[in-house]
Specification:
Layout (H helix, E strand, L loop, with lengths): L2 H11 L7 H9 L3 H15 L4 H14 L6 H30 L3
Length: about 100
């Protein structure tokens, strides 16, 4: 098995261990364009769920200033963020497996 395929797949599998750190290290340390491309792709997919954090913080602030209302916003953002995170987790694992099983 080629080292470049293993490094590229590791950047996707790192979603289970250290989602942002490992792809950044692989992206900066590698000179291979193939590995860099996959490290950037996996890094982007690891960062996307972080977009929901400011909305959750805003929703918690809104909820504390309006305690009588049901926190629909927080619930909606949490559900959407959870589904996006689950989808990206599955996508990263599938991409890593496909890289390891590919012939190129």
């Amino acid at each position: 098995m080629e080292t470049r395929k293993i490094l590229a797949a590791l950047s996707y599998f790192s979603v289970l261990v250290a989602p942002v750190i490992i792809p950044v290290i692989i992206w900066l340390a590698s000179d291979d364009g193939f590995v860099k491309k996959h490290a950037k792709s996996s890094l982007l997919s690891h960062i996307i769920p972080l977009i929901f954090i400011p909305f959750l913080i805003m929703g918690m602030y809104w909820d504390s200033s309006h305690p009588a209302d049901f926190p629909w916003f927080i619930l909606a953002v949490a559900v959407i963020g959870g589904l996006v995170s689950l989808g990206l987790l599955i996508w990263n694992l599938v991409r890593g497996v496909k890289l390891l099983l590919s012939e190129k």
